[in-house]
Design a protein that fits this description.
The structure is a single chain. The protein has five helices and 20 strands. It is α+β, with helices and mostly antiparallel strands and 363 residues long. It folds into two domains: 24-132, Rieske Iron-sulfur Protein; 147-319, Naphthalene 1,2-dioxygenase Alpha Subunit, Chain A, domain 1 (Alpha-Beta Complex), CATH 3.90.380. The strands form five sheets. Strands 12-18-17-16-15-14-13 form a seven-stranded antiparallel sheet, with helices on one face. A four-stranded antiparallel sheet has the order 2-3-4-9, with no helix packed on it. Strands 5-6-7-8 form a four-stranded antiparallel sheet, with no helix packed on it. Strand 3 (47-53) and strand 4 form a beta hairpin. The radius of gyration is 24 Å and the shape is globular. Bound molecules: FE2/S2 (inorganic) cluster and fe (ii) ion (FE2). FE2/S2 (inorganic) cluster binds at residues 66, 68-71, 87, 89-92.
Length: 363
């Protein structure tokens, strides 16, 4: 048996979806949130976590609870001796791998007292990503970081952060969903998918998008490269070249957070680049909010009724399903959201008032 405590928190609504937590690389913070010596709480993957940066500048992610008596490192924990995490409760110290390195009131350490650690990578001094696997497997793939993430030809990063009451698979399914643009986003034209290819942990979608502008319709492209469930690169071209890393992270098996990280190709002067970039981010954020009520209230249908001209939804789902390490529950065809709370105050409406409430078709 492992010495590492299983610190997963059971969720009340276990069965919102027929799938569990996916594995992959997931953004857990922006680099700027974590100064050297910072120790902060996080809750992802259904687990209480602690994210911290040692005095050498390395970021680390560990389970939150100290194996001594359960202190949460993220509330009052400190970085000591450059690279050790100290529990706020009785001062025990742990290294980034989660090994107990010091008990301040004992000559010995406790070799059984171990804290789970998660592999961490930092991208372009901007994003902190961590590898999560439900069975603590080491990384099964590495992220391929595109040049745009570090190139000088692109603006500084613009970002936006969302919390959504839906599993990240449901959001990701939008990456192939051209037809919803007309109805959810009211766009006159829908992206036309040229190809959708999957290859191991990578999925590539190529599409053409016509952008209406005051000077007529401009041909553009939206190309998406997903690397696992938590890291999607979208390149928008046509009006302005924009590079986006969309990073979804499961909060638990029913909810997720999404961080968008944009860089715009520099155009002439910095002010124009930032104006165009900001307008773009605002539009994408607006579309996200238009999608939200669909995601949060939709059922997950295991056997959707599809049109012959629908995009490759099932190919997408097959690709995504490889990231679930645990067997998928196959009992039901329809997985519905938790019913809303029924809560209202009694209200007495006298007869004369109800008369005035009748629907009238003519005056
Ligand atoms: S609970 Fe962490 S040192 Fe006691
Ligand atoms: Fe959408």
């Amino acid at each position: 048996m492992s010495d590492i405590l299983d610190q997963v928190v059971p969720h009340e609504d276990d069965n919102r979806y027929p799938f569990r937590m996916p594995y992959g690389w997931f953004q857990v913070a922006w680099s700027s949130e974590l100064e050297p010596g910072a120790v902060v709480p996080r809750f992802y993957f259904g687990r209480h976590l602690v994210l911290w940066r040692d005095d050498d500048g390395e970021a680390h992610l560990n389970d939150a609870f100290c194996p001594h008596l359960g202190g949460h490192f993220g509330y009052g924990g400190k970085v000591v001796q450059r690279c050790q995490l100290q529990c706020p409760f009785h001062g025990w110290e742990f290294d980034a791998e989660g090994t107990n390195t010091r008990i301040p009131y004992s000559e010995r350490t406790n070799t059984k007292a171990r804290v789970r650690s998660y592999p961490v990578r930092e991208i372009g001094d901007h994003m902190i990503v961590a590898w999560y696997h439900p069975h603590d497997e080491p990384p099964l793939f590495e992220l391929d970081i595109p040049d745009e993430a570090t190139s000088d030809e692109y603006s500084e990063w613009s970002t936006v952060h969302f919390a959504v009451d839906a599993a990240s698979q449901e959001l990701a399914e939008n990456s192939v969903d051209g037809p919803h643009f007309r109805y959810v986003h009211n766009t006159e034209v829908v992206p036309e998918i040229e190809s959708y290819e999957t290859d191991g942990h990578v999925a590539r979608m190529r599409s053409i998008q016509k952008f209406p502008t005051p000077r007529g319709v401009v041909d553009g492209r939206i190309d998406v490269d997903n690397q696992g469930p938590g890291f999607g690169i979208t390149r928008f071209s046509g009006i302005v070249d924009t590079f986006l890393i969309g990073a979804a992270v499961p909060v638990d098996q029913n909810r997720c957070e999404v961080r968008f990280n944009f860089r715009t190709k520099k155009l002439g002067d910095a002010a124009t680049t930032s104006t165009v970039g900001e307008a773009f981010v605002r539009e994408v954020a607006k579309q996200f909010e238009e999608d939200r009520p669909i995601w949060e209230n939709k059922a997950h249908l295991r056997r959707p009724a599809l049109a012959d001209t629908d995009p490759p939804f099932m190919k997408f789902r097959k690709w995504y399903s490889q990231f679930y390490a645990d067997a998928v529950d196959g009992e039901h065809d329809v997985w519905a959201p938790v019913p809303p709370d029924v809560e209202f105050q009694p209200e007495f409406i006298p007869a004369e008032a109800t008369a005035s409430r009748k629907y009238r078709t003519t005056e």
